[in-house]
Amino acid sequence: MIGIDIGGTFTDFVYIDDDGHIEIDKIPSTPSDPSVAFMRGLSNRLFNADEQIVHGCTVATNAVLERKGARTALITTSGFADVIEIGRQNRDDLYSFEISRPKPLVPHELRFEVNERIDKQGRVLEKLKLDSVEDVIQQIKKAKVESIAISLLFSFIYPYHERAILDKLTQALSGVDSIFISSDIFPEFREYERTSTTVLNAYVAPPMSKYLSKLTNLLSNHMRIMSSSGGTLDFAGTSELPVNTLLSGPAGGVVGAFSIGKTAGITDIITLDMGGTSTDVSLCQGSIQYTNDWSIGGYAVKLPSIAIETVGAGGGSIASIDEAGVLSVGPESAGADPGPSAYGKGSSPTVTDANLVLGRLPADVKLAGDLPLDLKAAQKSFAPIVQRSNLSLTEVALGVINIANSNMQRALRRVSLERGFDTRNFTLVAFGGAGPLHACQLAESIGIKRVLIPQYPGALSALGMLFTDVENDYSKMLMQETSQVDSEDLKLHFMELEEKATLKLKNGGFSASRIKTKKFIDFRYQGQGYEVTVPSDGKNLTIAIKRFHKLHNQHYGHSNESAVVEIVAIRLKGIGVTNKPKIRPHERKGSGGSQAIKRNTVIVEGNEQTTACTIYSRDKLLVGDEIRGPALVEQLDSTIFLPSNWFGKIDGYLNIILEQKI
Fold it and tell me: pTM of the predicted model, to two decimals?
């Protein structure tokens, strides 16, 4: 089995054989054409047609964030062309006078209206005027668009107008293959979110299709694509819903972290995935947490996803100083090309350069096994900041690390303390190439007492993808008071979705014994504008309502069991169970850890003073070995930093469990 995760700086490869033996590789990413690094990594190792490949894909993500998607048109009900620009009144920073919103992915001149109208009950108030559709077709031909999104008012109840337009466009526009209707993409209410999600899907479809076609031509292997919701999609599913891959890589990291934690007997975790361009965090209390309402680059997405909080802080985040002498870090990143100054191509000072200056990245280490670090280049990159700030090089480097940590700390607080979770009850699972360098300080800053560093932290997202099943999500709007729905009604509604899920998985080659489903219900108190998604057995409505009250209290600090409860929608996840890697414990015991000591060095911790530090080789640490800070642990895919007040022990799966000294 092969897991492949394309990141901002490196593309990671994990190879697992039938005995659970793991090998990893890291190749510099090729942003201009990700398939180049993909195939380069595979060419480093012979593979055969029997091997499964699971791929975390960033093509859709980059298309949105870099605004390099397709030239997309939007067709909507007359009077609603500006829905995607009006959006919601919600603001991330409530008191800011300078709120900036991203430009719509579809400019005004590519938004077209047709004459039709459906009411909220699904009744036809105005039949679709086919002559208005013909007018739109002629305008689209002149505009030379590559992709089209169709989102009509209340089409989630009455989809026939959208389908009629789709049929017309398919016949008239032979050169446009990417045409999507909102009643297929997201058949639920909330006009803005439904339109935004459909537009995003259309916007990323052509670049994704081009990428998948290239991989299909290069490979004959069976390959699955990681989705944002923690499952995987086949090529057909990815082509239909490329919007489902927008959090592909980060989702693999959460699945990997939870799987490794569960193997180690730890199920209450907070994940910290720090790569080259960003940091992703997620809280798992006994299970992975999901959301149906999120955004990317400021654009709303209303599809199931693992609940992940992202902040623009990574190893490549660029440090700068403004005219007032204020130091800032990120969100702009040096990325894979040119990368941090220490990589020898760029000249911008980054978090990686700061770690190198402080000795937390040893100057003689080679990242990914063959990328040397240039200490002098890193030091030189900070010269303009040192000169303008009148601070020493060490003070500037410490400031950069502290600011980056502060940015990541805010993300950790948002998924934990600000949602009512006691961080003292959780373990921080740190991974990504840079996560283990910052993990102990971040854990300490929000009260976490224990940190787990997986055996291969820099490639954990690629590993996590191999623990996934094929998953497809389905939903149905109900918008009814619970008093109007009995258990038999509920069973029939879920049966309708279950039949769709089962048919699709059987057509995908899964036997009945390998098909499972998970059921959920979206509840809210009457009059609320938001819902809480509750796991359900699909039969007992009373138990599901009790769970809703409990979860509502947990999320918002209150509940009202006497209030009228509404079912907004039901959801079903169809799961095709795949073969998983077998992670076996290691039996070879260590004798304390001295055999792994590589050398001694000096580092800078929380002040300008240098401190003696021991460097360990990760591949020589054995079960039961102990390490004490200050220490650095070097390995192919990452470097781990233990401050003076931390110590670690190697568990049976070669994870390093770090705790603060008492």
Answer: 0.91
CA 181 to chain centre: 25
Strands (E), 186-289: 223-226, 232-233, 268-274, 279-285
Say whether 294 sits in a helix, a strand or coil.
Answer: strand
CA angle 225, 67, 212 (to 5 degrees): 25
Q: Tens of pLDDT along 515-569?
A: 999 999 999 999 998 899 999 999 899 999 999 999 999 888 899 999 999 999 9
Q: How far apart are CA 347 and CA 337, in angstroms?
A: 11
The token duo for 429 is 């699972």
How many angstroms separate the Cα of 166 from the Cα of each of 69, 142, 195, 324, 601? 21, 18, 16, 55, 66
DSSP E strands in 307-426: the ranges are 309-311, 317-321, 327-333, 366-367, 371-372
DSSP state of 89: S
Interval 310-322 mean pLDDT: 90
**CA 383 to chain CA centroid, nearest Å:** 35
DSSP code for 491: H
Token pair, residue 21, equals 């033996």
CATH code of the domain made up of 469-576: 3.30.1490
Query: Before 630, cis peptide (omega within 30)?
Result: yes
Classify residue 385 as exposed, middle or buried by CB count within 10 Å of its CB (0-12, 13-18, 19+). Answer: buried
370 has a pLDDT exceeding 90: no
Out of 90-104, 205-219, 220-234, 350-364, which region has the weakest mean confidence (pLDDT)? 90-104
Note whether 212 and 182 are within 8 A (CB).
Answer: no
Q: And the tokens for 314? A: 């990574």
Helix (H/G/I), strand (E/B), else coil: 590: coil
